[in-house]
Each structure stands twice: as C-alpha cells, then as structure tokens.
Amino acid sequence: MNTAWMELAAGRGALGVGLIVAGVVVVALLLGAFVLGVRVMRRESPAPRPEEQPRMPDGGPVRETQEHREADEMPKSDTRLTPHELKGHGNMGDQTSPSQERPRWNEGSSGGFGSGGSGAR
Asked: 76-109, pLDDT tens digit by residue?
C-alpha cells in the first residue's frame, strides 16, 4: 500500500514540476516580447513635436463646395472607345451648369428601383 501512495505522489510531483517549467517558459516569452517591442519602438521615428502638427489655414476651415456640372455626351463611334480616348475623367464635363438647383425626384415617386413605391407618374 505504501508503494501506491509513493507512485501517486511521484506522479503529482512530476506534474507540479511540469507546471512550474511551463510557467517559466510563459514568463520568458512575455519578457522576450517586451524587449522586442522596446527595440522596435527605439527604431521608429519620434512623435511629431507641437510645432510640426498641422495647422488650420489662415482663412479658417476649408468647406466643401457643391456644384452641378454639365454632362459630356458620349461620342458616337462604331468601335469601342478606351478610357484615354474620352475627354476628362468620369462622365462629367469641365463646365459648371448654369442651373445650380439640385435635381429632385418626381412627386409621388419613391425615387428608387424596388423600394416599394407605386412607380406611377
């Protein structure tokens, strides 16, 4: 009976030693990660000083401007046009529209396809 208790105690002792070794390994990994982080931070450029921070323009904050542009017509052609053959960027022209009113939806229309409106005019 004594030998059974001794084997059980020996097994628990090995388990205890294994847990201690695992704990030491975890602590060593955490310390290594901390040291590596400090080295990386030392290599980085320092944070900008207050005088290097962006400043507001003298005229105050820049506001968004909204304007309606004249649409360019798509040129008629028998061949496929590539982007470099089109004028400007996108489908809007370079001229500001004489009417700056925002386009509105038709009265009684929901304005979107499949949005549940009657769609009748």
From this structure: 778 888 877 776 655 455 667 667 776 666 666 6
CA distances from 83 to 20, 25, 77, 90 (A): 68, 61, 14, 9
74's tokens:
């798509």
What percentage of the chain's residues is helix, strand, coil (to nearest 5)?
40, 5, 55
Task: Quickly count: other Cβ atoms within 10 Å of residue 86's Cβ.
Answer: 13
pTM score above 0.70: no
- Quote the tokens at residue 101: 């009113």
Cβ neighbors of 118 (< 8 A, separation 6 or more) are 108, 109, 110
Q: Are 48 and 75 a contacting pair, CB within 8 Å?
A: no
How far is residue 50 CA from its own chain's centroid?
A: 27
Q: What is the DSSP letter of 101?
A: P
